[in-house]
Amino acid sequence: MEDVVNAVVLVTNFLVVPATAYGCQLALGALGVTLVYGVLRFSNFAQGETMSFGAMVTILFTWLLQSWGVGLGPLPTALLALPVGMGVTAGLCLLTDRWVFRFYRRTKAQPVIFLVVSVGLMFVMNGFIRFVIGPADRVFTDGTRFLLTVREFKAFTGLSEGLAIKTTQTLSLVVAVVLVVLLFWFLEKTRTGKSMRAYSDNEDLALLSGVSPEKVVAVTWLIVGALAAVAGTLYGLDKSYKPFTFLSLLLPIFAAAIVGGLGNPLGAIVGGFVVAFSEVFLTYPYRKFLAYLGPEGWRPDGLVQFLSTDYKFAISFFILVVVLLVKPTGVFSGKSS
Amino acid sequence: MSFLVGEDLTGGYGGPDILQGCAIAAERREITVVVGPNGAGKSTAMRALFGMLKLRSGKVRLDGEDITALAPQARARKGMGFVPQTDNVFRSMTVQENLEMGAFVRDDDISDTLEEVYGLFPALKDKRRQPAGELSGGQRQQVAIGRALMNRPRVLMLDEPSAGVSPIVSHELFERILDIARGGVAILIVEQNARQALELADKGYVLVQGRNRFTGTGAALLGNPEVRKSFLGG
Q1: Nearest to A305, CA basis, from A320, A295, A315
Q2: What distance, in Å, lies between the first and last C-alpha atoms of chain B?
Q3: pLDDT digit string, tens, across residues A91-126
Q4: Quick check: B77 contacting A, CB < 8 Å?
Q5: In terms of Cα–Cα distance, which of A55, A51, A44, A56 is closest to A120?
Q6: d(Cα A81, Cα A141) in Å, to the nearest integer?
Q7: Contact between residue B41 and residue B71 where contact means Cβ atoms under 8 Å apart
Q8: Which of B84, B93, B105 sits opposite A210 (nearest CB)?
Q9: Strand, helix or coil for residue A101
Q10: Distance between CA atoms of residues A43 and A35, nearest Å
């Protein structure tokens, strides 16, 4: 019996907890993609760099706060700097819309033109970010590292397997839940939120009803920018911040948005968790887990790992291809992609 | 002078002119019907009245005021309602949210108007929490008309309200449209289903190739042998 409990703790510690935190970060990123797709009707490839930019601003402000000796005690100082990152990133999104996307909206460009434009924007932002903060790996988390340490857990339960929960993992979950609840409240209950949904659903009819397209677009960018900054910061806090990683993060983010159905916010959240759990569960070596469950003294010969962690992005890619082949509108039937 | 007047409407969607100087007028408390063969420019004329295409010449007047230069949104604020033929509801939003969107430009309390619309279409009240995309064709038309009514329009324009619904349902729909007209709204309908529409029309226009061909009361047009032969199938 104790072996079974140990196996469950093992899986929780190495799979469920990290995948949940990662899922929250992906879900927030995918929400940005799906909102832009729903309202502006293109796939925004600059989303990854927008997250990176938000994290960068937050880090710079965190350093400033740390130099002043301001902190949050057990919580990371970055949490205090996060609102600044959200604001600046939202502002940046409004500026890029005014400088770049608005022109193509006025000329009624095809969605594919928007997509290519967003790729261009992605490269410009990528260069700008590396110019400002440099390409190096940054660890900017401070405060208490663990909410629950392996040693505390073992002492408390007397099990041989330990369970650790990092502060940043808990933070990812709490912040994501709060933001998602706020976002859905905004979309479902407020006048502006409803006009956003109406515009996303049927642009012509929304215009007939007197909805101002420029206002809807501006509000969308504000939300997307703020969410991207949070997603980037949480990812950076949980792992570390490195500008290059955000390019490869695009794949799981798009996979998440497409799994749930582009344009569908609820789908983006579910998609984020589907992708995160698939990535983590399929790259974990189950040797020790099976040893606990098998007969006494037995252990598998190999690692019992489906895929090497080097291939984790292949999983996103595989999910993406399968969804596009089987149900291109996604599980929650968004707009066709 | 009529309440809504379109004079000498000339224009199209950038290509050749679809409208070639047609004139349409609608009165409050009356139903005006525009009929004609396919491609006669009926829907285009209605879009022109709502400001959805650029006119090369011609004027649109609402209650004596020249509104030719106004954008559709501004016309909606002036009390014009438009129900497109297709895609006329927000599919992913509930019936009630659809109606609320119809009142988007209003700042006052909309609950009375909401009750009025539910009074007119009782079926919608039971389904108010259901997404409009899940409703039947007839109920979807009711949502579409209800959405336009939420802005308390003085003119209501309907593009083929009977398209895609059964004769019984469209008969019921026309009854409700009569009720709306009695409430003081000027109604303008474009119809393919000419006979049914002309039967309840106070005034009818027959458009052919972007021009007025016949004008008269609904009964007169129905009684006109030439109109019957050419447009009503004998």
Answers
A1: A315
A2: 34
A3: 999 999 999 999 999 998 999 999 999 999 999 999
A4: yes
A5: A44
A6: 12
A7: no
A8: B105
A9: helix
A10: 10
Query: Whose CA is closest to A289, among A13, A52, A81?
Result: A13
Using CA atoms, how far residue A209 sits from A108, A202, B72, B226, in Å, is 21, 11, 9, 40
Q: Do A194 and B101 touch (CB under 8 A)?
A: yes
B66 membership: H or E segment, kind and range: strand B65-66
ipTM: 0.87
Contact A204 B84 (CB under 8 A): yes
Angle among Cα A241, A242, A248 to the nearest 5 degrees reads: 115
Whether the predicted pLDDT of A334 surpasses 70: no
Contact between chains at A197 and B102 (C-beta distance less than 8 A): no
For chain A, the average pLDDT equals 93
| Cβ <8 Å between A197 and B93 | yes
Report how far residue A35's alpha carbon sits from residue B7's, in angstroms, rounded to the nearest whole number. 43
For A209, the closest of B76, B91, B92 (CB atoms) is B76
User: Which one of B82, B92, B97 has the shortest CB-CB distance to A208?
Assistant: B82
What pLDDT sits at residue A1? 76
A166 band by pLDDT with thresholds 50, 70 and 90: very high
Identify the residue whose tokens are 């019936």: B95
* Residues 6 or more apart in contact with residue A291 via CB below 8 angstroms: A298, A299, A300
Q: Cα–Cα distance between B93 and A197 in angstroms, integer?
A: 8
In the prediction, which pLDDT does A24 show?
97
pLDDT exceeds cutoff 70 at A335: no
**Residue B137 corresponds to which tokens in the numbers above?**
């064709």
Our CA-based measurement puts residue B36 at a distance from the nearest CA of chain A, in whole angstroms, of 25
Q: Is residue B204 very low, low, confident or very high in pLDDT (cuts 50, 70, 90)?
A: very high
The model's pLDDT over B98-134, given as tens digits with 9 standing for 90+, comes to 999 999 988 899 999 999 999 999 999 999 999 999 9
**First and final CA of chain A: distance in angstroms?**
49
For chain A, list the domains and their CATH numbers. Answer: 2-326 (1.10.3470)
In one-letter notation, the amino acid at residue A325 is L
Coil, helix or strand at residue A72: strand
Residue of chain A whose alpha carbon sits nearest to that of B107: A191
Q: How far apart are alpha carbons B9 and B55 in whole angstroms?
A: 7
Q: What are phi and psi of B125, to 5 degrees?
A: -65, -40
Q: Are A80 and A65 in contact (CB under 8 A)?
A: yes
Q: Which residue type does A49 have?
A: E
Beta bridge pairs of residue B94:
B131
Q: Is residue B129 a contact partner of residue B113, using CB atoms and an 8 Å limit?
A: no
Please state, in angstroms and rounded to a whole number, the distance separating the CA atoms of residues A298 and B169. 73
Say how many residues make up chain B. Answer: 234
Q: Over 50: is that where the pLDDT of A298 sits?
A: yes
- In the block, tokens 């890029």 appear at A96
Q: How far is CA A140 from CA A60, A76, A233, A246, in A?
A: 10, 8, 10, 17
CATH class of B4-231: alpha beta
Strands (E), chain A: 146-148, 165-166
